[in-house]
Amino acid sequence: MANRCYPIEELTGFIRAVLTSYGVLEAHAATTAERMIEADLRGMSGHGIFRLPSYARRLEEGGYNLRPDIRLVHETPVSALVDGDNGIGQVVVTHAVATALDKAEQSGIGWVGIRGSNHAGAGGVYASMALPRGLIGVYMAVGNANHMPPWGGVDLLLSTNPIAVAIPAGQEPPLVLDMATTNVSYGRVKVAAERGETMPEGWMVDRDGQPLTDPTRAGEGFLLPIGGYKGYGLNLVIGLLAGVLNDAAFGSATIDFNADYRTATNTGQLMLAVRPDLFRPLEEFTAEVDHRIREIRDSTSMEGMPPIRIPGDQAPQRETRIRSDGVPLAEGTITRLIDLAQRTGVTTHPFA
Predict the structure, then answer these.
(1) Domain 68-182+227-312 part of CATH 3.40.50.2300
(2) According to CATH, what is the number of the domain 184-224?
(3) What is 1-61+315-351's CATH number, 3.30.420.40, 1.10.1530.10, 1.10.10.10, 2.60.120.10?
(4) How many C-beta atoms lie closer than 10 Å to residue 133's C-beta?
(5) Over the stretch 46-86, which tens digit does the pLDDT of each residue have?
(6) What pTM did the predictor assign?
(7) What is the largest CA-CA distance in the chain?
(8) What is the phi/psi pair of residue 269, to 5°?
(9) To 10 degrees, what angle do helices 331-344 and 52-60 make?
(10) Do the Cβ atoms of 47 and 53 come closer than 8 Å?
C-alpha cells in the first residue's frame, strides 16, 4: 500500500503535543520534534516520527529524566564531557553539539564527548549543524541495542554504531555522509517490517550464517558489518571513542532499548567540529571541495550503472520535495500514531 504524506508543521506540532502530555518541558519537546522532523526531511524515516511511539513508551515507563541537569563534567578550550543525566537524546545531543561548535569557532576545534544520553536519531542531522557556521562536523554514537557479533562470532556485543561527517562546499551541496557501520541500520529493518517488505540478502543472517530476509524474524539473526571485518573494526573504534572514552555503555553493558523501557541506557555519543581555516582559508577550501565534487560526479560511470553520486547530493531536492508534498508515512506507522494520540488525549493531529 502506498504511503500517505502529511505536512511537516502538523507532524511537528503533534510530536510536541504528545511529548508535553507526558510532562516533557515545552522547550525540550520543541527541540526533540525539530530533530525528528529533520531526520524525516533527510529521508532517514527510521529516525523520524516513526520513533515517537517507542519514545512515548519509554516516557510512560519512566525511562527518561524529564528534568535533566545537562552539565559539563570537564572542560578545556577545545574539549568537554557532557553528562546528559538521562535526558531525551535529541535534547542532550543538541546541547553538546552547540558546545562543540562554539569551541570550534573560538579555538579551531571542539571535541565533545557525551554520556548519560539516549537514542538521538539520525547522526547526519547533528553533523550538518556545523555547516551553517562554515565548520566540518563529525558525529559518532554507540547504538542502543546490540544487533551484531564480533567478526566471526555469534554473541551480540556490538550495535550499529553510526558515523556521520558533514563537509562544507561552496556552490555545490555539502558532502554529508551518514551511515551505520552495519550494512543497514536496525531502524530500516523495523521500517521494512512495518511496511511488509522483504529485506534484501546481505542485511542480516541467522546464527548459521544463512541469509535472513523476513524482517519480522530479525530477532533470530544479526546484522552484518559494512566491508566485512573492516566494518567490524570501524564499529569497534566508534564504540570505544563514543562509549568507553566517555564512561558510557558499550558491549555487554549496552541496554536494549527495544526491550527495556525503564533502565537508563547511558548512551554515548561524540561530536567533533573543526574550523577549516586551521589548515587553509575557508573560501579556498570550499572552492577546492566544489572542484573535486564535480570531478568525481562527472567521471565516467561503468556501463549499465547510474551516474556517479556524492554523499548528500540529493538531500536538498529531497528536503524541498518533502516540504512541499509532506512526510511519507506507512499505514503501520499511521496506525501506531493514531493509537498514541488516543492514549495521550491529543486531539489535534492530521491522521483523522
Answers:
(1) no
(2) 3.30.60.50
(3) 1.10.1530.10
(4) 14
(5) 899 999 999 999 999 999 999 999 999 999 999 999 999 99
(6) 0.94
(7) 57
(8) -140, 170
(9) 30
(10) no
